[in-house]
Amino acid sequence: MATEDTTTKLFCSRHPNRETLLRCNRCEKPICSECAVLTPTGYRCVDCVRSQQKSFETAQWYDYPLSMGIAGVLSFIGSYLVSLLGFFTIFVAPIVGVVIAEAVRMVLRRRRSPRLFRWVTVAAVVGSLPILLTTLLGVIFRMQVSDAAVITGLLPLVWRVLYTFLVASSLYYRLTGIRI
User: Angle at Cα 103 formed by Cα 97 and Cα 106, nearest 5°?
Assistant: First the structure.
């Protein structure tokens, strides 16, 4: 007696030539292992994950220029003040990044978008560039004078670069991280 296979073959909705046993736990579409996105509640298709992520992007168009302007101006002010601190830049720059993040959050209220957070971080980096570039130009002009002048001008350049990196990383982490 031959047994007949009563199960029907399922094929991925995005890759019709791939046989699969998986289904999206939200829309029940068949999905292959390449299209499956593991979530805490099970596997979902790419379309369901995208639609869910869009509900979390609540930023308005005016949030972009407003928050980027705030980040750029505060980063510029911070880079000017930190230029007076030298070694203590290591301790102050992350605090400046957090202050910028909190100022941006205050303006945004509860609106958010991963793209917005990246643009705010870019604006903070751009805000720190004028003083960084003037320091770099000073080092370049000192190269023409003497080697000792280059060495003395190099350390402030290191602090400015370190400031830019620390502010950007702490700002981005604070905006995208979990707030406790």
Answer: 140
Nearest to 98 by CA among 167, 178, 41: 167
Q: Find out whether 95 and 167 touch, Cβ atoms under 8 Å.
A: no
Backbone angles phi, psi at 19, to 5 degrees: -80, 145
| Integer Cα distance of 168 and 171 in angstroms | 5
3-class DSSP assignment, residue 126:
helix
User: In this predicted model, which residue has the larger pLDDT, 149 or 83?
Assistant: 83
**DSSP states along 41-103:** TEEE-HHHHHHHHHTT----TTHHHHHHHHHHHHHHHHHHHHTTTGGGHHHHHHHHHHHHHHH
Q: What is the pLDDT of residues 33-62, one digit of tens each?
A: 888 888 888 888 888 887 776 656 778 889
The distance in angstroms from the start CA to the end CA of the chain is 65
